[in-house]
Design brief:
The structure holds two protein chains of two kinds. Chain A is mainly beta. Chain A is built from no helices and eleven strands. Chain A has strands at 5-7, 10-14, 19-24, 31-37, 43-50, 55-58, 61-66, 71-76, 85-92, 99-101, 105-110. In chain A, the strands form two sheets. In chain A, strands 2, 4, 5, 9, 10 and 11 form a six-stranded mixed β-sheet that branches. A five-stranded antiparallel β-sheet of chain A has the order 1-3-8-7-6, with no helix packed on it. Chain A is globular, with a radius of gyration of 13 Å. Chain A starts with a strand and ends with a strand. Chain B is mainly β. In chain B, strands 2, 4, 5, 6, 9, 10 and 11 form a seven-stranded mixed β-sheet that branches. A four-stranded antiparallel β-sheet of chain B has the order 1-3-8-7, with no helix packed on it. Chain B is globular. Classes of the chains: A mainly beta, B mainly beta.
Chain lengths: 111, 114
């Protein structure tokens, strides 16, 4: 019962451009998180935004959350080739720590 | 730094074998999780444990069992491996908190069942 739906499934950009990924979900959440996965590796937590927050920044990352539309976006500014990876959103709600992961966006940043 | 380790990065087993995948975390997390990841299907939760000896089925528990005898260790068991269990298996851990529940992942085990 996956809750997060991500868009686009794949994104290819040039180095220096911004990358935007979107995530939609279906029910009320406590928080929404973004993770990154390099090919063949485990996921790494990037940023968490709580349901009462609208925007959060971390370095070149900017996350927005619109609970009325049940959607979030992740913006990576001034992308680098090293940002090439899959990015997943995950929603957290009142179930003791479980998360529901989206299917991910594959980002390719060309040098 | 939180560290989650998995016993093997790559594993090849034969159909019908019993397979153990082990996961250890060093952050005193209450929660531990086993996921499998397949192309086009994302991460699917197999089992979840919120305390020692406690477990909960996830979305796809069939064909799997788990064991959590110590807080830091969570094992996934394939009682009789089948080819459709060929996949990437990811272990994760987190605090049992609704608001600060970011998960920390191990490097993954790529299991091939022949």
């Amino acid at each position: 019962s996956q809750q997060g739906e991500e868009d686009p499934q794949a994104l290819s950009i040039q180095e220096g451009e911004n990358a935007t990924m979107n995530c939609s979900y279906k029910t009320s959440i406590n928080n929404l998180q973004w993770y990154r996965q390099n090919s063949g590796r485990g996921l790494v937590h990037l940023i968490l935004i709580r349901s009462n927050e609208r925007e959060k920044h971390s370095g070149r990352l900017r996350v927005t959350l619109d609970t009325s539309k049940k959607s979030s976006s992740l913006l990576i500014t001034a992308s680098r080739a090293a940002d090439t990876a899959s990015y997943f959103c995950a929603t957290g709600y009142n179930q003791g720590g479980k998360l529901i992961f989206g299917q991910g966006t594959e980002l390719s940043v060309k040098p | 730094d939180v560290k989650v380790t998995q016993s093997s990065r790559y594993l090849v087993k034969r159909t019908g074998e019993k397979v153990f995948l082990e996961c250890v975390q060093d952050m005193d997390h209450e929660n531990m999780f086993w996921y499998r990841q397949d192309p086009g299907l994302g991460l699917r939760l197999i089992y979840f444990s919120y305390d020692v000896k406690m477990k909960e089925k996830g979305d796809i528990p069939e064909g799997y069992s788990v064991s959590r005898e110590k807080k830091e260790r969570f094992s996934l068991i394939l009682e009789s491996a089948s080819t459709n269990q060929t996949s990437m298996y990811l272990c994760a851990s987190s605090f049992r908190d609704h608001y600060y529940n970011e998960q920390f992942f191990g490097p993954g085990t790529r299991l091939t069942v022949l």
